[in-house]
Amino acid sequence: MFDFDIGKLMVVGIVALAVIPPKDLPRVMRTVGQVVGKMRRMAAEFQGQFMDAMREADLESVRKELEALNEKAKVEAAFDPAAAIRDEVTRAGEAPAAIGAPQVALDAPEPAPAAEPLALSSEPQPKLPEPPPAKQSAAE
Questions:
Q1: What is the pLDDT of residues 16-43, one digit of tens each?
Q2: What is the SS3 assignment for 130?
């Protein structure tokens, strides 16, 4: 703090012995020690308050940066995760109505009304030959 080395301390001690009588020296040394202790505590307290102020200023700037990031990252769409989970749980708890039911109707399609074939020409259409009868096996 004051940059005292051993040589300066010895000079101060010799001057103190010359100026202060030996009878009062212990009381003076105790008082000097108490004053130095108070000065050190005050310096440490000041330094601690200064460091706290620096941390607060630093935290304030960090808080402002985080607020700016939050503003940039805001999503315009409403997002409620609790409501989404609640809906999913409600849907999962409902009785499944369509499990096992086919998605496609298995009934035969209704026949279309018969329409008369279109004739491409005015000539009568030749009939196709009938297939030959199936051969019957000898075992029958």
A1: 888 888 888 889 889 988 998 999 999 9
A2: coil
Q: Is 136 part of a structural domain of the chain?
A: no
Each residue's pLDDT tens digit, 3-16: 778 888 788 888 88
How many domains does the chain fold into?
1
- The answer to whether residue 13 is domain-embedded is yes
Residue 1 is encoded by which pair of tokens?
Answer: 């703090």
Tokens of 58: 């630093």
Instruction: Tell me, yes or no, whether 16 lies in a domain.
Output: yes
Q: Are 44 and 36 spatial neighbours (Cβ–Cβ below 8 Å)?
A: no
> What pLDDT digit, counting tens, does each position of 51-89 carry?
888 888 888 888 888 888 888 877 666 677 788 888 888
**55 with 43: CB under 8 angstroms?**
no
Does any domain span residue 131?
Answer: no
The whole domain housing 65 covers 6-75
